[in-house]
Amino acid sequence: MMPVSPGSTAPVPAAPTALVLRGRRLDAAHPGVMAIVNRTPDSFYGGNRHANLDDARRAVDTALEQGADIIDIGGVRAGQEGERVDADEEIRRVVPFLEWVRGAHPDAVLSLDTWRCEVALAAGADCVDLVNDTWAGHDPDLVHVAARLGAGYVVSHTGGLPPRTDPVDVAYGDDPLDVVRDVLRTLADGAAAAEAAGIPRERVLVDPTLDFGKTTAHSLQVLRCTADVVALGHPVLQAISRKDFVGETLDLLADDRLEGSLGATAVAAWLGAAVFRSHDVRATRRVLDMVATIRGDRPPLRAERGTAAVAGTPPAGVAGT
Q1: Which of 35, 6, 7, 31 is nearest to 17 (CA)?
Q2: How many angstroms separate the CA atoms of 318 and 300, rounded?
Q3: Cβ contact 152:205 at 8 Å
Q4: 302 in a domain, yes or no?
Q5: DSSP per-residue string spanning 47-107
Q6: What 3-state class would DSSP assign to 238?
Q7: How far apart are CA 187 and CA 238, in angstroms?
Q8: Contact 151/125 with Cβ under 8 angstroms?
Q9: Dihedral sign, CA of 91, 46, 159, 161?
Q10: Does residue 317 form part of some domain?
Q11: Ranges for the Pterin-binding domain (predicted)?
């Protein structure tokens, strides 16, 4: 066996830049889980269709119980399938619900998933801690509304596609890394614009926005380069959960994409992403805590095995050798 020499351990990638919202800090020791609660009847994943009010309320309660740090509430399906939803209908779906969540869970960090400034204005400062602009500034006023509300802001990358447009024959160049260069340029410019609008740096979250304006090959390449996105110096959001690039990689429908999503989540967390948008809060929370501990950013909750205090008495539920 070859001896292990000093310095032979592979370096741990850079720690994530912290996101600070509503007095809560999401960082290397505690990466954030953003729970998805869609007030829609047609979400691509059947397990997250919460058009029914009581069902949506239970989803929020459960997400917080399972360790969610942020609740992301949206009223429009991202892709082009499904019904047309105008601003008035989007407001009807999300604003009263945000008000209920704030009343029921006053300390919860609330995110509004929208591309329309009128929806964010209708929700108001009391109910919005983060504006998740999923369509890359399609409404140029939205970032200024977020600043006026005192909210954080998500800068996304969609390859220039307008809202609810699914990618078809999208190309960024002959070099597979061209898509990464476009992502980095777009996110850097968007983050600078958000800061210029008055949003503090620690509230500007950048999202490479996998699947949006991207083929599966594009999304996989961008995911591999998460560390380059982290190097921009802003907290990074990865929205991986049950997406099509996971499904196509494994040839699975949305209902069967949990393990693939968690595998991709572990890789992105190791590379320094700070927040993960997820349909599966408990599983994602456990994966992130495990990765943070392996990275050395979070101590294990227990480290008793093999110590004198417990010699010969394995803790309950721990298998012996």
Answers
A1: 31
A2: 15
A3: yes
A4: no
A5: GG---SHHHHHHHHHHHHHTT-SEEEEESS-SSSSS----HHHHHHHHHHHHHHHHHH-TT
A6: strand
A7: 13
A8: yes
A9: negative
A10: no
A11: 31-289
Dist CA 109 CA 249 (whole Å): 33
CB 310 within 8 A of CB 318: no
Neighbours of 162 (CB within 10 A): 10
3-class SS of residue 275: strand
Cα 285 from Cα 289, distance rounded (Å) = 6
Tell me which DSSP letter residue 293 carries: H
Give SS3 for 24. Answer: strand
Per-residue tokens: 220: 């996989």
Q: Work out the number of other CB atoms within 10 angstroms of the CB of residue 125.
A: 12
As a whole number, mean pLDDT of residues 192-196 equals: 98
- Pull the structure tokens for residue 149: 């509300």
Q: How many domains does the chain have?
A: 1
- Within a 10 A sphere around the Cβ of 248, how many other Cβ atoms? 16
The DSSP secondary structure of 190-246, one letter per residue, reads HHHHHHHTT--GGGEEEE--TTTT--HHHHHHHHHTHHHHHTTSS-BEEE-TT-HHH
Q: What is the pLDDT of residues 31-58, one digit of tens each?
A: 999 999 999 876 665 566 566 888 899 9
Q: Does residue 291 lie in a domain region?
A: yes
Calpha distance 199→46 (Å, rounded):
35
Residue found under tokens 């998933």: 113
Which is it for the CA torsion 32, 17, 207, 204, positive or negative? positive
Q: What is the pLDDT of residue 318?
A: 57
CA distance 239 to 314: 38
308 lies in some domain: no
Half-sphere exposure of 261 (CA within 13 A, CB side): 25
Retrieve residue 68's tokens. 């969610």
| Phi, psi angle pair for 152, to nearest 5° | -75, 175
pLDDT digits 0-9 by tens, 200-233: 999 999 999 999 999 999 999 999 999 999 999 9
Phi-psi region for residue 23, left (φ > 0), alpha (ψ -120 to 50) or beta? left
* 3-state SS track over 134-175: CCCCCCCCHHHHHHHHCCEEEEECCCCCCCCCCCCCCCCCCC
Q: What CATH number does residue 206 fall under?
A: 3.20.20.20
Give pTM, 2 decimals. Answer: 0.92
